[in-house]
Design goal:
It is a single chain. The termini are far apart. The chain is an all-alpha fold. α1 runs antiparallel to α3 and α3 packs antiparallel against α4. It has 6 helices and no strands. Helices cover 86% and strands 0% of the residues. It has one domain.
């Protein structure tokens, strides 16, 4: 009888160990699915931020301001400069969000490559550089170093 109890106990331990392994596999799969969902959600958030920026450019009056700003900021009135600064702040905020999301491993490299290329092209424009030099302190230290390194490559 004693041997039979020991055999049952051993079998229970083995079954328990198998159950733990199965549970860990399930938890791992759930975490992976959650990570994927967060990555998709982050990308959707950046797209939404970019669409907000596009709304600005659909306004013909602001589009004219943006066009003038690429050539000569001196032609803009103080009110137009405030509008431009707000637009550029939104753009840099979206870029910083994308940068932090990617840096934290929550955006795939191929998605980041597209956004980074887009924002790098924007940074070559005089108005983007003007804004950055004026308001860079409003961004995280890591993002400032990153954008400054790009500006050093450009200039």
């Amino acid at each position: 009888m004693k041997k039979s109890l020991e055999q049952y106990a051993l079998a229970a331990e083995i079954i328990g160990a198998i159950a733990v392994v199965i549970s860990l596999i399930y938890v791992g799969a759930s975490v992976n699915q959650n990570t994927d969902a967060i990555m998709v959600s982050n990308h959707q958030a950046i797209v939404a931020m970019d669409m907000d920026k596009n709304d600005w450019l659909r306004d013909s009056e602001f589009a004219s301001i943006a066009e003038i700003a690429t050539e000569d900021l001196g032609q803009l009135s103080p009110v137009q400069l405030i509008q431009l600064s707000t637009f550029l702040a939104n753009t840099f905020n979206a870029w910083e969000f994308a940068y932090i999301t990617h840096t934290n491993g929550m955006m795939e490299d191929n998605i980041w490559d597209g956004w980074e290329g887009f924002y790098r092209l924007n940074l070559e424009q005089k108005d983007f550089q003007w804004f950055w030099n004026k308001d860079r302190e409003g961004f995280s230290p890591e993002f400032r170093l990153y954008v400054d390194s790009i500006l050093a490559e450009i200039n």
